[in-house]
Specification:
The chain is α/β, with parallel strands linked by helices. The chain contains 9 helices and 10 strands. Strand 1, helix 2 and strand 2 form a beta-alpha-beta unit. Helix 3 packs parallel to helix 4. The chain is elongated.
Length: about 270
């Protein structure tokens, strides 16, 4: 091979090697910064206080635990009582981020007072009354009318409480006049009177009967359809953590919340 041809061959070999190296490098390029996955939304943080009707105690305790598990930076404090009592507490300045009422009437009290935005409440469940009696049913209660028997010690909710307002609605619709031995400030107090044996019967919600298990016997009555309670939920205007408050509401009204509520016996809104 002449010197000229040898030099040409060397140059050609070098060019081919350089070309192959460039091709190999282009086969697995580093991902440019513009193609990286976008950053996820900032995690929720902080605490909220949820004021919820007494009939929601079991379900909201479960939902709060699940919500905290899904959002490790969040703490949910729960306050349960009769809806009318909760309205009084919020009106008097008690710190609350979310209010879940057992009826629309008590929610309206807070929207009228501008403590909750008028367009904020969302209906998330319904509930109806059921008669609770001790397993032995000492008064032989079988119908709604039986609650008016003089010998029957019947306990109901006070009229300002949603379960009490529902009781009055059924009485009005049926003409049955119950003379209770006591009127309680929450549905859980009514149930407590029955389970302790202090009452022969009490008017509570279907969901309370399910939650009580073998402690009571439930007696359904067709007249309960005369008073179906709709449950609304809303963020309180003075919430110090509105982002988390709204996220909790979305959780309750979403698939997980609705599944938990349905399992507990609540109806669709």
């Amino acid at each position: 091979m002449t010197p000229t041809r040898k030099i040409a061959a060397t140059l050609l070999t070098a060019a081919v090697a350089l070309s192959l190296s460039a091709c190999a490098g282009s086969g697995a390029p580093a991902a440019p910064a513009a193609e990286t996955a976008p950053a996820s939304a900032s995690a929720l943080e902080g605490s909220i206080t949820v004021f919820a009707a007494a009939s929601l105690k079991s379900t909201f305790t479960e939902l709060a635990d699940e919500f905290e598990s899904s959002n490790p930076g969040v703490t949910v404090e729960l306050n349960f009582a009769g809806s009318s009592d909760l309205v009084t507490q919020i009106t008097e300045g008690a710190p609350a981020d979310v209010f879940a009422s057992a009826d629309e009437k008590n929610m309206a009290k807070l929207t009228d007072a501008t403590l909750i935005a008028p367009d904020a409440p969302v209906d998330f469940a319904t509930n109806v009354l059921e008669i609770a009696v001790p397993p032995s049913n000492p008064a032989g209660i079988a119908t709604f009318a039986d609650l008016a028997k003089p010998e029957a010690k019947t306990v109901v909710c006070a009229p300002q409480v949603p379960c009490g307002a529902a009781t009055l609605a059924v009485e009005t619709a049926t003409g049955v006049d119950i003379t209770p031995v006591s009127e309680e400030s929450s549905v859980t107090d009514v149930l407590g009177k029955v389970t302790s044996g202090e009452a022969d019967a009490g008017l509570v919600y279907v969901t309370d009967i399910i939650a009580a298990g073998d402690a009571v016997t439930g007696i359904r009555f067709p007249e309960s359809s005369e008073a179906v309670n709709t449950y609304p939920i809303a963020p309180v205007a003075a919430s110090t953590n509105p982002e988390v408050a709204q996220a909790f509401i979305d959780f309750v009204t979403g698939a997980v919340g609705q599944d938990v509520l349905a399992t507990a016996g609540f109806g669709q809104p």
